[in-house]
Amino acid sequence: MDRAQKEQVVEELGQIFESSGVVVVARYEGMTVAEMQTLRAQMRDAGGAVRVAKNRLAKIALEGKPAASIADYLTGMTVLAFSEDPVAAAKVADAYAKTNDKFVILGGAMGENALDPAGVKSVAQMPSREELIASIVACIGAPASSIAGAIGAPASNIAGILSTLEEREAA
């Protein structure tokens, strides 16, 4: 890798560290190519990505970035999992770590906040952006459906009373 390629990698990593909602650092020593491809596919499905980079280049890219606190985790065979959604990468990484003992979460960063492995697990348990939007929409829609039910209730009560009166007259 020549100097120009290294500069390009540092710039790409810098963009990742600035634009990502969460960055998770994990050790992947001993994982097969198939296992890594499975992790990449799961991360892609969740809207995130996985990147293996030289630790030295990643440390250079971290200088002056909000996620600079993760530089201490960059030793040995490390992989970066990241996503714009502040929860997606942590959820996938945590779920994958449960199924594969070779994938060990070292920590991460959420903006300027450093995360230890327990912090990454806590972030993974938070609802995703889509889940939050769905619950907000449900909260907004609930009063409207209650109002519609309340408006429709007197009409159905009157219809029930009228049918009862008709049955009495017929009998």
From TrEMBL:
HAMAP family: Ribosomal_uL10. Keywords: Ribonucleoprotein, Ribosomal protein, RNA-binding, rRNA-binding. GO terms for biological process: translation. CDD domains: Ribosomal_L10. It comes from the Bacteria. It comes from Paracoccus chinensis. Forms part of the ribosomal stalk, playing a central role in the interaction of the ribosome with GTP-bound translation factors. Part of the ribosomal stalk of the 50S ribosomal subunit. The N-terminus interacts with L11 and the large rRNA to form the base of the stalk. The C-terminus forms an elongated spine to which L12 dimers bind in a sequential fashion forming a multimeric L10(L12)X complex. The keyword NAD does not apply. Belongs to the universal ribosomal protein uL10 family. Coiled coil: none annotated. SUPFAM superfamilies: Ribosomal protein L10-like. The gene is rplJ. One of its GO terms (cellular component) is large ribosomal subunit. This is Large ribosomal subunit protein uL10. The keyword rRNA-binding applies. InterPro entries: Ribosomal_uL10, Ribosomal_uL10-like_sf, Ribosomal_uL10_bac, Ribosomal_uL10_bac_type, Ribosomal_uL10_CS_bac. GO terms for molecular function: large ribosomal subunit rRNA binding; structural constituent of ribosome. It holds the Pfam family Ribosomal_L10.
